[in-house]
Prior knowledge:
The protein is of the alpha/beta class. The chain has 13 helices and 48 strands. Strand 44 and strand 45 form a beta hairpin. Helix 11 packs parallel to helix 13 (610-621). The protein is globular and about 85 Å long. The relative contact order is 0.06.
Amino acid sequence: MGRVGVVFRLRNSKLHLPTHYMLKIQSGHSGIHATKLFNMKNFTFYFARPLVIVSLYLFVCLSSISAQINYNYPIPGPYEDYHGPYFIRVQVNFLQPTNDLWTNNWDVQAEANAVMATLNSAFNKHRIYFVPYTNPCSGSAFQVFTTNLNTLEVRDQLQAPATINEAYHIYVIHDIGGIGGWEFNTPNNFCQIYGKRNGVLVTRSEILVHEVGHNLGLVHTFTGLSNEGCDETPGSCSPNSPCDCCGDYVCDTQPHSNSSINASVSCSHPSLPEHIVRNFMSNTNPGDCRNQFTSEQAKRMRTYLELAPVLQSAQIKTTNYPGTIPSSFSGNIIVHSGELLVNSQINMLPGSTIRVKRGAKLRISSTITAACNGMWQGVIVEGSTFATQTAANQGSVVISTNGKIEHAKIAIDVQDSDPISKPIPSSGGGIVTVVGGQFVNNTIGIRFGAYATPGTGAANSSLLVSGRFSITDEYRDGNNKTTFLDLTGIVRLRIIGGRFQDLRTQCTDTSNRALGIDSILYWLALLQTYQTDLQLAKHHFFTGNSAEFVQIWHRLETEHDLTGEQEAELNRLGEVFDMLENELSQGFTLNNLPESSIENLILKTQICDEAAFLSEILLWRNGIRIETTCNGGEERTKPDEQVISQNDNSVQLFPNPAANQLTVQFKKGTTGRVQIHNQIGRIVYSTSILDTNESVIINTLPFPNGIYFVAFRLHDSLPKSRKLIIQH
């Protein structure tokens, strides 16, 4: 076996090595020492020291050695789409020599937290989650080693075998020069990173994601490409699908030979597609361009997490029922058979699921919530669109009065879904029974997959009785809009009663308010009758969708055979919309209309039609409560005691706007009650008025900034309402 020795002198650069070399690195910095035969096609070496001497020994590789190297990452595609999600316990280790205590220059806790944030930002969308080793909600688990040992020696001599096996380890070995990393093997349960860029430690960079990607089964996007195609073709390769088992073993990454890609400031390249230029597993410069994996790369990583032995012990394992359910934090739970009763609270890790298989049942009589102030994915009820709804054919969930699901992306998904929550066809049919259960602060309450009872017109076996759906100020999913029920794909579902409430005090954008039943808009759009188009027009106007409003309003005027009464109603509604559009264009809001518009709206309430009902809602939002009833004729009964003038001075509020406190002043001897409502009518304050007092002082500090309504029910005068602004 012949060999050739070569010495390179490199200054702040990186070196890409051909496939089969033995590498010997000698450096003055502890932590970079290795001599081993590797399959070098996975490796990119970044040298941070001003001077590094590299000795390369080129070997004449025997076929047996070549075969061994080919199977260093031996799982070829096409890859099964494992659902996950996967939870990997992580410990961050900072290594510093005794003569260079470099970690003193950094907030180590913050940098360890940055490792977790960087990884979860890149991998969560692919259902791969990283949690601290010791406590999943602690932010991070880390340790500082002051030693002259390198990474492999620290693992061998200073860390307990249990610690090494039960967590995925990241070793940060110095903060000198440019950033770089080393995955050691593919797959693997540890990697090494180092350096800083523009004063920022490598813990916050794409290099961290790159090396972890290697450890989870990925190789460089340019791997294995030569003028003849892939450098290796294992015997298991299919001639029809070489991309699955050579090169980078991924089919949706375009083959390319650019081991180093120089992109523009905007991250574009004249000859390479965006998914390569921005790929975490490329070597694009600037590195900030690298911010994505492809879907096939994600499938390969999930395949390795499912099958590679070296990655198994670092994961939080799925709990299978029948079996013991965790009493504290839980990852995924699968109910394979029988009935799982949840009668004490379960704290699900962010992104985790409870999957109910066909023939199994989940009964919820306590709370299932998300741990770590996050959002868990929710319950998945497996089923079949082509099977009848029996206990043996479908999965089922029962949630009783004391049952509650909160802080889930989809509290109950009555269908299977892929790793990005896209419904899988033909998986509807699961059975959900709700009897007074609660759904709180979920992005979607219940989403039904497509299902119609095969061959019959029978009702769906799912039944919702008095379900309580709500969203509060504790909602955790940012600006993602809430839908309580998504029924678009289901027919003949029985819903008996229920409550839908958006209780957020600070959600003033009407377009972002919770949607009760998503299928209503879908079916309204299909029907195209006068009444359904009228409801759609109002919906689009108040959600700010002007284009849809104009289109539907035109249809109302031209495509329906209207009666004289409907034409009059439409004209009156048009007057209201024209007035509102004019006021909004001048900077007014629906909660703060001018006096002239208020007077017009009060007049509109005289006739029993859609314009009157709309006017009532707008008046209430402006602090004037008019509750009228229709008596069967055109004219409406408007009781005198409920006509409220904004110029009535019998009750005074000051200051308005209020900051710390509000004074309500009235005549001495008055008795009754004062209540403060938020914008959705919820009572946030209530107190009695005694006849010995002339005023009530209310502490407004606990109330968030916003618009409120103060209602007065006094024994010697008519009920009144005033608008109040709280601005701290």
